[in-house]
Design brief:
Elements: H1 2-61, H2 68-124, H3 127-133, H4 138-182, H5 186-214, H6 217-221, H7 224-239, E1 242-248, H8 256-277, E2 281-288, E3 292-299, H9 306-311, H10 313-318, H11 321-331, E4 335-340, E5 346-353
Parallel strand pairs: 1-2
Antiparallel strand pairs: 2-3, 3-5, 4-5
Length: 355
């Protein structure tokens, strides 16, 4: 039966994600060990650096008590300890960033597995008729879900290559320059180390932003509303757009899969504005009533012909319309709509029944 083939493909995909989740968990455990070891080492070096700094201060107050050789040795030791401490702190921050990335990946894979489990249950329970009743074809829905995940993996890999991976390569080169300068020009080496420290901090901040885009930790800890407030601020700064966020009557937490799906829907809509709309402002409204959540994203951009764009499969995929529609209609059993006209901006709306 065709349905059996679909279930088998779905279960095979789910099993693949489960294997990846196991690998990610094992790697996360290994990284956790490195974080603990690095933390201990940094603490030891920090204590040693404090002790050495105290000795240097004593030396500066009582220079006449020490020989030139002793003074030179004191300063050399202090510089070595400070350099080692900076390097260890930078390494620890990188490992901590990797830990957060793995945690985010675990959470993302867990969401996919839950989604696939639900799809299997729907199929085994005769869900094809139910899906058809909602205007969706189950096989198309499954294929689009899997394709969306692969597209997301591709996006992440490209961002990792162009962002953190490239920055790390530059940091390694700058560290090698510092290593060569230490034996020849100590003052220049210090200057390079200060520049390297600044570059490491910048890379760390970029990595944290990348992790937040991938899977905000605040989504699990604080919920949808605080996460959206922070994301809207960061998105506006990054995209040079004015994002006006209004949230009404949404004080309560929603189930985890609702919050994740709603966040991804809004994230996709905002990214579309930044990529395609040539807009200056975005109005984002969430309004909850007793049993529904209304979401509205409006921009003042150039707009487009909706029917022509949606009729073009390539354009539809590039704009993520299919993904947004599935997030609202297939995953949350809501209603999705999009309105636009040339020169009049675009309006994306969703009505989601609340549990």
């Amino acid at each position: 039966m065709p349905g059996d083939d679909v279930i088998e493909r779905l279960e095979s995909t789910r099993d693949g994600y489960r294997e990846e989740l196991d690998r990610t968990r094992r790697e996360a455990q290994e990284v956790e060990v490195l974080v603990r070891q690095g933390t201990v080492e940094v603490e030891k070096l920090a204590q040693r650096e404090l002790a050495v700094s105290n000795r240097v201060r004593d030396l500066e107050v009582n220079l006449d008590k020490y020989s030139k050789e002793e003074i030179k040795n004191f300063y050399t030791t202090a510089q070595e300890v400070q350099m080692r401490l900076q390097i260890m702190r930078a390494q620890l921050e990188q490992v901590q960033a990797r830990r957060e990335s793995l945690r985010a990946r675990q959470s993302q894979i867990g969401d996919v597995i839950s989604l696939l489990d639900g799809a299997v249950e729907v199929l085994r329970g005769g869900g094809k008729a139910q899906a058809a009743g909602n205007g969706l074809d189950t096989e198309d829905m499954i294929a689009n879900i899997i394709q969306s995940q692969e597209n997301e993996r591709l996006r992440i890999s490209l961002q990792m290559h162009d962002g953190p991976a490239q920055s790390m390569s530059n940091l390694v080169l700058r560290a090698e320059i510092c290593q060569r300068l230490i034996d020849h020009d100590l003052d220049q080496a210090r200057a390079e180390l200060n520049a390297l420290k600044s570059a490491i901090n910048a890379t760390l901040q970029d990595t944290r932003k990348f992790i937040f885009d991938l899977r905000p930790m605040t989504l699990d800890d604080l919920g949808l509303v605080p996460t959206l407030r922070r994301y809207a601020t960061q998105f506006g700064e990054k995209s040079s757009l004015e994002v006006n966020l209004m949230i009404q009557n949404l004080e309560q937490r929603l189930p985890s899969h609702y919050e994740v799906t709603i966040f991804r829907f809004i994230q996709e809509a905002l990214n579309n504005v930044a990529k395609h709309a040539n807009a200056n402002q975005i109005r984002l409204l969430l309004d909850s009533s007793a049993d529904t959540l209304q979401i509205l994203i409006e921009d003042d951009g150039s707009g487009f012909h909706v029917m022509e764009t949606l009729a073009n499969e390539s354009a539809r995929k590039n704009m993520g319309v299919a993904s947004m529609r599935q997030q609202v209609e297939a995953l949350l059993r809501g209603e999705f709509g999009i309105e636009s006209a040339i020169g009049r901006g675009t309006r994306v709306a969703a009505t989601i029944p609340l549990p």
